[in-house]
Write a structure and sequence with these properties.
about 15% helix, Glutaconate Coenzyme A-transferase, single chain, ten-stranded mixed β-sheet, alpha/beta, 13 strands, globular
């Protein structure tokens, strides 16, 4: 079973040379720490930064340099800072090759709920609305089950939706899964020490298992 760092490390393997990548709040921000130095990747933060680097070491933080989750970050040589209007112009114009988001629920047809829990005060959907509406390639980093032991990969989301039919791939503490075009989760890899039976038990939505499922290389 993977921890949050393990999920981020596995997702980093999905990033290709030359990509522009947006990292959402939560587990996705950790992905920046696992991109190889030899790879030419530009990380975009929706609050207005191109060229985001890994988290700073303790004592080297700059309180004026933050990501969309208000965490202190580093800037790489050649980075650019701009206003949020330009940032969302990039997103809406599909200039971002890959978006990595956290989620509270994902349905078997690729719907995502990641912004609101009924009864809890939130300021709004924020940039996730634009990201899920504009991105062609969305990977979700999330926990497979919630604290009550219930699946978060569902036939249908119970929470308010952020986007419909948009998620392409999911990486959890248990598995890597594709969202099939016709609906359903396809199991691609299992986390170290996790059995296929455990993943089946933890997945409430339709799950397709074909052949021998390899263990993740993390």
């Amino acid at each position: 079973m993977l921890d949050k760092e393990g999920i981020a490390k596995r997702i980093a393997k999905e990033i290709k040379d030359g990509y522009y990548v947006n990292l959402g709040i939560g587990i996705p921000t950790l992905v920046a720490n696992y991109i190889p130095d030899t790879m030419d990747v530009v990380l975009q933060s929706e609050n207005g930064l191109l060229g985001m680097g890994p988290f700073p070491f303790e004592g080297e933080e700059d309180a004026d340099t933050i990501n969309a989750g208000k965490q202190t970050i580093t800037k790489l040589p050649g980075s650019a800072i701009f206003d949020s209007a330009m940032s969302f112009g990039m997103i809406r114009a599909k200039k971002v090759n890959l978006t990595i988001l956290g989620a509270m629920e994902v349905s078997e047809n690729g719907d995502i709920a990641n912004w609101k829990i009924p009864g809890k005060m939130v300021k709004g959907m924020g940039g996730a609305m634009d990201l899920v509406a504009s991105a062609d390639n969305i990977i979700v980093a999330m926990q497979h089950i919630n604290r009550a032991g219930e699946s978060k990969l569902l036939p249908k989301c119970s929470l308010p939706l952020t986007g419909v039919n948009c998620v392409k791939k999911i990486v959890t503490e248990l598995a890597v899964l594709d969202v099939l075009p016709g609906g359903g989760f396809k199991l691609l890899e299992r986390a170290p020490g996790v059995s296929v039976e455990e993943i089946i038990k933890a997945t409430a939505g339709k799950l397709v298992v074909e052949g021998e499922i390899p263990e993740m290389d993390v």
